[in-house]
Amino acid sequence: MSRGDRSTRAMHQALPPALREAVDNFAEHLSRVRNRSTHTVRAYVTDLVSLFDHAVRMGCVDLAELDLSVLRSWLARQRTTGAARTSLARRAASARAFSAWAHRAGLLPSDVGAALASPRAHRELPGVLRADQAAALVDGPTRRVTPTDPPPTDLPDTHRAPTHHPGTGPAAGPTPGEAAVPLRDRVLLELLYATGVRVSEACGLDVADVDHGRRVIRVFGKGGRERSVPYGVPAQRALDDWLRQGRPAMVGAHSGDALLLGARGGRLNPTTARQIVGAYAEAAGLPRTSPHGLRHSAATHLLEGGADLRAVQELLGHSSLASTQIYTHVSVERLRAAYRQAHPRA
């Protein structure tokens, strides 16, 4: 448990019983009814515990006493302690979501959070790779499939070549599991870039989620929403190689139906997947890159290639078109850069 989790738990236990019960019931509503992820529920609970701790300090010990002034005072205090605009916006959203739920549940006489304004979160343009850089990244593992080409030494431990100890005889070649790692890495990179899925979605794929005939994968995104995402021929080749040669060599007792496997045979962890992407980017001499950077790159390249914004929204699994529109800004910035470089009167 992190220090922040321990602090939140301590504040939660110190709340009056009515407020503590309200937090617990709202968390259960988010988890069971709204089907929110554990991470999302934890974030909401952290925000609410902070809000109620502030309310108690202001003398509000009953939920019915919660009003707009308390909410505004809480956000103002967050701002004076240095909270970023994005954090303030998220906390205001947490307060509004709780207020709406509590009013529907009869715990609040009115939806006091409906009038709560929040600072507009500053949205920085996401960094994206050029198409040739993305190609160099996803092609990285293919340069390591042959045993005669040793892996870079700066990749994660699961990628390192077996160590030969003096006096133990000739150095052995890679085991089947070690030889399968580049095939796993290749299919991971291909799928992330070809489909633009989130890293958690990629790691959550099962073998049965791949429709080889139609070349689509079935993805379960935020809130358990299901969508079908197409992929191309390079990703299909990577999938075929992985399922035919790679996965059987890495499969273990805890593999289940997972498509992508870790070094010990279990489902590939998103943290490990992030390390894999970052290591291959560094080995290829590319800017620092994450799976989310590949998602940004896929969306931007689709739009620059003429894809419809609504289609990209569906592919990415965005519930709001506003989330997808940020990628149009990236394309405009590239257009401006090209204009300034090429036009005689720029």
Write the layout of secondary structure elements.
Layout: H1 3-14, H2 17-33, H3 38-57, H4 68-80, H5 85-104, H6 131-138, H7 176-195, H8 199-203, E1 210-211, E2 216-220, E3 226-230, H9 233-250, H10 270-283, H11 291-304, H12 309-316, H13 321-342
Antiparallel strand pairs: 1-2, 2-3
Helix pairs in contact: 1-3, 2-3, 3-4, 3-5, 4-5, 7-9, 7-11, 11-13, 12-13
Individual helix count: 13
Principal-axes shape call: globular
Just give the CATH class of the largest domain.
Mainly Alpha
Please name the CATH architecture of the largest domain: Orthogonal Bundle
Straight-line N-to-C gap: 55 Å
Low-confidence stretches: 145-172
Major β-sheet annotation: 3 strands, antiparallel
According to DSSP, the number of beta strands is 3
Strand order of the largest sheet: 1-2-3
Describe this entry's structure for a reader.
- The chain is 55% helix and 3% strand.
- It has 13 helices and 3 strands.
- Helix 3 (38-57) crosses helix 5 (85-104), helix 4 packs antiparallel against helix 5 (85-104) and helix 7 crosses helix 11 (291-304).
- The protein folds into 2 domains: 3-115, DNA polymerase, domain 1 (Orthogonal Bundle); 133-160 and 170-291, Intergrase catalytic core (hpI Integrase, Chain A).
- Strands 1-2-3 form a 3-stranded antiparallel sheet.
- The protein is globular.
- It is mainly alpha-helical and 346 residues long.
